[in-house]
From TrEMBL:
GO biological process: sphingosine biosynthetic process
Domain DAGKc as annotated: residue spans: 1-147
One protein family per Pfam: DAGK_cat
Species this protein is from: Neolentinus lepideus HHB14362 ss-1
InterPro entries referenced in this protein's UniProt entry, alphabetically: ATP-NAD_kinase_N (IPR017438), Diacylglycerol_kinase_cat_dom (IPR001206), Lipid_Phosphate_FormReg (IPR050187), NAD/diacylglycerol_kinase_sf (IPR016064)
Gene Ontology molecular functions: lipid kinase activity
Record-given protein name: DAGKc domain-containing protein
Length: 386
C-alpha cells in the first residue's frame, strides 16, 4: 500500500507542479496510484497525514510513503510515526527531492560530475521503487531531551551548526535558497560553546573509533572518550555523508561505510584549543580560529577534504601536515552533550533542521538505533542496480 505527499512550500515551491507534471503520471503509467495523495497544508501536517493513514490501516505492516519535500518534512514523518502507539511497521520512503538541502537524497544519489537533467535526477528514487528494488534500511539518531524523544534521519548537532539553523530560519523569507545558511554561518563563526561530551561505543558491541589522517583509516580511540570544550563545531550524522549536494561534512560514511547491521553516528568536531596558535578564549584568538574554521569547513565542499587537514609547523591547517588532526572525526554509537549552565547558546540542539533547547542544568543523549521505540523501521529507495 502506498501514499503520496508533497510539501508545496519546500525549496523553491515547485512541488505542486512537479507532482502533477511528473510523479503522478509515472505512478499512473505503472498502475501504482497511491491510496492517499495530498499536499501538506501546514507545519506538522505530513506527520498527521501519515499517522492517521497508519491508524486507519492497522494491519498494513509495510507502507510506502512517496514524499516530495526536503529533509524537514521527512523528519516530521519519522517523528509522527514514532509517537504512534501501534506496534511494528516497515515504512518505505520514496524521496522526491524538492526541498532546499535534500541531504538524505543527495547522499543516496550523489550528484555526478557530468551534467544531469534535473527532472530525471529528482525521479531516481521513484524509478527505483517502480522497478521493485529493495529499499535500504535507515539508521535513526534517537535523542533524549528532558522527557522528550526526538528522532533524526540526517543530522543531530549543537554548537555552530545549531546556531546557524537557529538564525537562518529568520532569514528564510528573504533567502529561500541555501544562501541563508552561509549568511547565518558568518554571523556565528567566532562563537565558542562551553560543554563537555562523552562518546559511547556502538551497540551491541564495538568501540569508539577515530579517524587517523596519517593512515586514512578509522582506528580504535584509545583515550578516555570524554572530550572537554570549548567547542566551535559539533555535528553528528546518520545515513548521510553530506548536508547539501556538495557539502560532504562526514565523508567517511560513504568512503569507509559502517556495517549496515550496527547503527552508528559519524561525528565531526572542531575544538579551538587544539589549535597550537590559540591559547585562550580572548577575542583575538577567536578571530584567528574563526578564519581557520571557515577555511576548514569550506574544505567539506572540496569532496570532504577537511578530514585530512593537520596542523603544520607554522600552525596552519594543511593536507600534508604532520601535526594533530584539525577536525576530530569519530564513529560511535552515541554521545552525551553536557552544556555549561552559563552558556545559553550551548543549549541549542538541531535535529534535522528543527531547533530544540536543552533545559537549564540539563544535558542530552543521542544514540544510533535501528528502529523507533514503538517498533517502526524506516527504509529508503536508493540506487537501482540493473
Ligand atoms: N503548507 C505548508 N505551509 C507552511 N509550511 C509548511 C507547509 N507544509 C509543510 N510545511 C513546513 O515546511 C518546512 C520545510 O519543509 P521541507 O523540509 O520539506 O523543505 P526545506 O526546508 O526547503 O528543505 P530541507 O529540509 O531539505 O532544507 C517543514 O518544517 C514543514 O513543517
Amino acid at each position: 500500500m502506498s501514499i503520496a505527499l508533497y510539501n508545496p512550500v519546500s525549496g523553491d515551491g515547485s512541488a505542486t507542479q512537479f507532482f502533477s507534471d511528473h510523479v503522478l503520471p509515472l505512478l499512473d503509467k505503472h498502475n501504482k496510484s497511491p491510496a492517499l495523495f495530498a499536499p501538506t497544508e501546514h507545519p506538522g501536517h505530513a506527520a498527521e497525514l501519515v499517522a492517521s493513514f497508519l491508524s486507519a490501516h492497522p494491519d498494513s505492516e509495510r507502507v510506502t510513503v512517496i514524499v516530495g519535500s526536503g529533509d524537514g518534512t521527512v523528519h516530521e514523518i519519522v517523528n509522527g510515526v514514532a509517537s504512534l502507539s501501534s506496534g511494528k511497521r516497515d515504512i518505505e520512503l520514496v524521496l522526491v527531492p524538492l526541498g532546499t538541502a535534500n541531504a538524505l537524497y543527495a547522499s543516496l544519489f550523489p550528484p555526478s560530475s557530468s551534467p544531469q537533467d534535473p527532472t530525471s535526477y529528482r525521479l531516481l528514487a521513484l524509478h527505483s521503487f517502480l522497478a521493485s528494488s529493495s529499499p535500504r534500511l535507515l539508521a535513526l539518531a534517537e535523542t533524549s531531551l528532558a522527557s522528550t524523544t526526538i528522532y533524526s534521519a540526517v543530522v543531530t548537532s549543537t554548537a555552530l551548526h545549531a546556531s546557524i539553523l537557529h538564525d537562518s530560519e529568520a532569514l528564510r523569507k528573504d533567502m529561500p535558497g541555501i544562501e541563508r545558511f552561509k549568511v547565518a554561518a558568518h554571523q556565528n563563526i567566532t562563537r565558542w560553546y562551553n560543554a563537555s561530551v562523552v562518546l559511547r561505543p556502538p551497540k551491541p558491541d564495538g568501540s569508539v573509533q577515530v579517524y587517523d589522517p596519517a593512515t586514512k583509516s578509522l582506528i580504535p580511540y584509545g583515550k578516555d572518550a570524554k572530550l572537554q570544550g570549548p567547542f566551535a563545531y559539533f555535528l553528528s550524522t546518520v545515513n548521510v555523508d553530506r548536508l547539501e549536494p556538495l557539502f560532504r561534512i562526514t565523508p567517511l560514511f560513504s568512503s569507509i561505510p559502517p556495517p549496515p547491521s550496527t547503527p552508528s553516528l559519524d561525528i565531526a568536531i572542531l575544538r579551538p584549543l587544539r589549535d597550537p596558535a590559540v591559547s585562550s578564549a580572548a577575542q583575538d584568538d577567536r578571530e584567528i580560529f574563526a578564519q581557520k574554521a571557515g577555511r576548514v569547513l569550506g574544505e567539506a565542499y572540496n569532496n570532504g577534504a577537511h578530514v585530512n587537514l593537520r596542523y603544520a609547523e607554522d600552525r596552519q591547517p594543511v593536507t600534508d601536515g604532520d601535526g594533530e588532526a584539525v577536525v576530530e572525526y569519530f564513529r560511535c554509537g552515541g554521545f552525551e552533550w553536557i552544556p555549561d549552565e552559563s552558556d545559553d547558546r550551548a543549549h541549542l540542539l538541531c535535529a534535522d533542521g528543527a531547533i530544540f533547547n536543552i533545559p537549564p542544568s540539563g544535558r542530552t543523549t543521542c544514540s544510533a538505533v535501528a528502529s523507533t521505540r514503538n517498533g517502526v523501521r524506516f527504509s529508503v529507495y536508493s540506487q537501482h542496480l540493473t
